[in-house]
């Protein structure tokens, strides 16, 4: 039997994870997507995390959204799986589109702020901003270098 909280891997040692491209309707009638800032890595990414042993990927994605953003969500369409190496080990992240249905961000051990940004056309993306070439669609390095598209941030309290 596995220890409580143990993470799930496949027989070939692939780390399994899941997350969501969390979105909401903006006041102007458009759509905004959520990126989380992880100070440990100084990056921006969609909310995601490793599966616990025996956990369903969709349940893990919803759990990670709540843990990292404080928002509940309604999962929708399954998105492509991201596959890449982390420290030489294969990792697979299953993604879903998910609408934010309520909640509020509180800074936590993994995430110190979230950004809600209007999506940009593919030509706007810069590969040099990504954390790793294999995760470019899902992660952006150094929020200080992220172009200012009038984000509505949900930072932690001023004293955090």
What does this molecule look like?
This protein is mostly beta strands. The chain is 8% helix and 42% strand. The chain has one helix and nine strands. Strands 1, 2, 3, 4, 5, 6, 7, 8 and 9 form a nine-stranded mixed sheet that branches. A hairpin with a 2-residue loop joins strand 5 (71-86) and strand 6. The longest helix has 13 residues, at 57-69. It is globular. Residues 125-151 and 155-160 have low confidence and may be disordered.
Helix-strand category: mainly beta
Kindly report the oligomeric state of this protein: single chain
Helix and strand sequence:
EEEEHEEEEE
- What is the overall shape? globular
Strand content: 35-45%
Q: Report mean pLDDT, rounded to a whole number.
A: 79
Gyration radius, to the nearest Å?
A: 16 Å
How many strands in all?
Answer: 9
Low-confidence stretches: 125-151, 155-160
Distance between the termini: 39 Å
- Fraction of helical residues: under 10%
Number of helices: 1
> Could you describe the largest sheet, including whether it forms a barrel?
9 strands, mixed
